[in-house]
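A common beginner's mistake is to predict each chain separately and then try to dock the pieces by hand. The better habit, illustrated here, is to supply every component at once so that their relative placement is modeled jointly.
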Amino acid sequence: MSKTRLDQKKVNSELFTLTYGALVAQLLKDYENVEDVNKQLERMGYNMGIRLIEDFLARTGCGRCYDFKDTAEKIQMGFKIFLGITPTITNWSPAGDEFSLCFEVNPLTEFVELPDHCLNLKYCNILTGVLRGACEMVQMEIACWFVQDQLKNDSTTELRVKFIKRLEDAIPAGDD
Amino acid sequence: MVIYGVYIVSKSGGLIFNHDHNVPKVEHEKQFTYPLDIKLTYENKKIVVAFGQKDGINVGHALTAVNGSSVTGRELDDGRDVLEMLERPENFPVNLKFSRAKMTTNEKIFLASMFYPLFAIASQLSPEPRCSGIEVLEADTFRLYCYQTLTGVKFMIVAEPSQPGMEILSKRVYELYADYALKNPFYSLEMPIRCELFETNLQNLLETVEKSGISNV
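With all components supplied together, the output reads:
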């Protein structure tokens, strides 16, 4: 029974890419204002992240992070599990509380060209929400934003992640 | 090999799921003559045996039926008070049915929220820093296994003391929760889990473990 469970159900990434494209296109229609779409994508991502983290933990059996480097590696592992890509971790800040994830390939943007009226659109903004939601559930507050985007003619896509604080109040008993 | 039940307690300490798996049903029916040779009392909205254990009817068992008509609280179906009725010789001989009292949902919620501070106290009493809280609680008739995830959800399994592999089982239950509860778009976090798929998959998992051991899941 758990055999069907453990070998993860695989879907073609194109199906995923197109579904996400349909979602963004629909949001653009619904909101018209690009800033609202960015915000909405982040919110949807957040709601996905707070659920997805349980899947990640159940599947990998990862323990708690006591260092942001750990967190970075686990986020990287998450991308491998859920999107099948391994972004590189670079540009650590001297304090070790900020790093970048660089994507050479990004399955979300495979067939995408941004039209002129969408230059402010953060097409992959759902990812920032996912990361924020997932980290929040393991009692870590982070901020996350895009600094480079291949869709905007940058050479890579770069996602910056910043550690803000541990959510001490939310840490469950027996874990602090 | 018996697993008695599975409980899931949310981050905030509320019972969000419980599943009674394999609780053996104890039921005894017997003809009684006047005067009644067991002592009954009314407590917790049930009529229970207080003293006088015989023929499998034990102290603590609840009266469920009198002459085939069921007992609710202290009243019969027709509204008569059971204890008063059993004091009158003209009502005898009488047929009484007893069974082990079942926990109501309210009692389960109450107990689950009681375990929550217990768990927290255990982790604070620890002589060493960074204590996990209660992982196994053992009694003569059962063992309770508790697995707390990093997000604070607790998975509890009550099983026979001799049942092996319960730590692994609780992680399997966590996987089922991640799949069938959290991926259900109509399930909202922290709310009671009413997902049929989750329930059936859990049931299957428990049955497999009981039949062929944890190594087969």
